[in-house]
Design the sequence.
């Protein structure tokens, strides 16, 4: 067995006696933040365009106090950003759901308004659209209704060169 | 080679033990598989895992205890698991991109099956090229990976898997080509990295899962055969 004199590297990390407990505390904070951040991944959708990465610290190696603090702070900041993004989307969706309810209650006051399934946080490509019944006649007579178009648009061949 | 191989705990250098108390390395020596191509049973196992593992599972993966523990370990050593993927997340993404776990030969398939079943990553080395027990330690001045003197020196302080002679692989990284399993390999040295939050039993289970898949090819009864013969 080769004996490695890695104690030389300890000064870079700071004295064990002074900074060891602080580093341990930072590592447990990092673990907690990572768990909280992981808990949000299932709530996020690709439309949220969340950047999860905080960047590495040139590992794998033992991180010093300042580096662990940086990881902890970056994770906390990212967690805050993700929560804000998700909260903003939840607020937008709640607003759209309220609009959809008003559309369904009184289509005449929401002529040609469109709300998509994505707007209310639902899967699929459906769109609620306030349209006149019987086209032009309905428009003139004030017969408005909410139509739900279901299904996603059919795929089309990619536009080739002219 | 003993008839009943047993997992062995490797040495962890003192600074690592003090700073990362849960970190460890466990290895198991096995005869190398004769066949390169996976038998149909192993390919079926991969196909079964592919159907069991879907997009929603990939999303929820990081919330499960074992993958979460590896993500945290990555953060603790300065790796960003969203840039340098943890092995199980890398396998999950590959599964989604390829549409299934693709068979890449018996050893790779056995490593993948153990990884996906347990969440614990494993690597394999040519046991004949490894001198002494595996250990985890920090890189010393100008050290290079493996026996390749032309390789770039490793950064000082990097955490590596090493034998008594040289650094063999960065922590959570791929082993040096000089110690990789090849056609002439007689015995494999499988190793797993244990991190804080992973019970030792889980790590041993990963090694035995891999050994079972390889033993099935030899037809020696797998885990029970090797333990109780």
Sequence:
């Amino acid at each position: 067995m080769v004996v490695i004199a890695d104690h030389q590297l300890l000064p870079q990390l700071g004295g064990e006696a002074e900074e060891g407990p602080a580093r341990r505390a930072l590592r447990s904070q990092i673990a907690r933040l990572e768990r909280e951040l992981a808990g949000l991944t299932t709530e996020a959708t690709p439309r949220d365009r969340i950047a999860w990465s905080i960047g590495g610290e040139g590992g794998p190696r033992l991180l010093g106090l300042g580096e662990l603090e940086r990881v902890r702070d970056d994770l906390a900041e990212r967690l805050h950003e993700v929560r804000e993004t998700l909260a903003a989307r939840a607020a937008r969706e709640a607003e759209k759901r309220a609009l959809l309810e008003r559309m369904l209650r009184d289509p005449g006051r929401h002529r040609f308004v469109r709300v998509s399934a994505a707007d209310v946080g639902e899967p699929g490509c459906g769109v609620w659209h306030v349209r006149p019944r019987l086209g032009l006649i309905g428009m003139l007579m004030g017969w408005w209704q909410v139509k739900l178009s279901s299904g996603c648009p059919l795929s089309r061949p990619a536009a080739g060169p002219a | 080679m003993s008839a009943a191989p047993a997992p062995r705990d490797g040495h962890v250098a003192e600074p690592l033990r003090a700073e990362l108390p849960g970190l460890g390395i466990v290895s198991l020596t096995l005869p190398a598989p004769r066949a390169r191509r996976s038998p149909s049973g192993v390919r079926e196992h991969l196909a079964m895992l592919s159907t069991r593992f879907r997009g929603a599972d990939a999303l929820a993966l990081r919330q499960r205890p074992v993958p979460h523990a590896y993500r945290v370990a990555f953060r603790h050593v300065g790796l960003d698991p969203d840039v340098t993927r943890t092995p199980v997340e890398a396998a999950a993404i590959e599964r989604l991109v390829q549409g299934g776990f693709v068979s890449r030969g018996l050893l790779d398939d056995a490593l993948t099956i153990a990884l996906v079943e347990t969440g614990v990553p494993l690597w394999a080395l040519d046991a004949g090229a490894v001198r002494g027990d595996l250990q985890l330690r920090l890189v010393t001045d100008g050290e290079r990976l493996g026996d390749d003197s032309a390789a770039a020196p490793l950064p000082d302080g990097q955490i590596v898997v090493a034998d008594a002679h040289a650094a063999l692989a960065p922590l959570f990284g791929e082993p040096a080509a000089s110690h990789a399993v090849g056609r002439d390999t007689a015995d494999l040295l499988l190793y797993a990295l244990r991190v804080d939050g992973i019970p030792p039993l889980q790590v041993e289970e990963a090694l035995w899962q891999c050994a079972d898949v390889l033993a099935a090819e030899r037809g020696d009864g797998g885990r029970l055969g090797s333990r109780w013969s």
Notes: Confidence is low (pLDDT under 50) at residues 224-229 of chain B. Chain B has one domain: 8-228. The two ends of chain B are 14 Å apart (CA to CA). Helices of chain B lie at 14-19, 40-52, 55-60, 65-76, 87-98, 106-118, 200-218, 222-228.
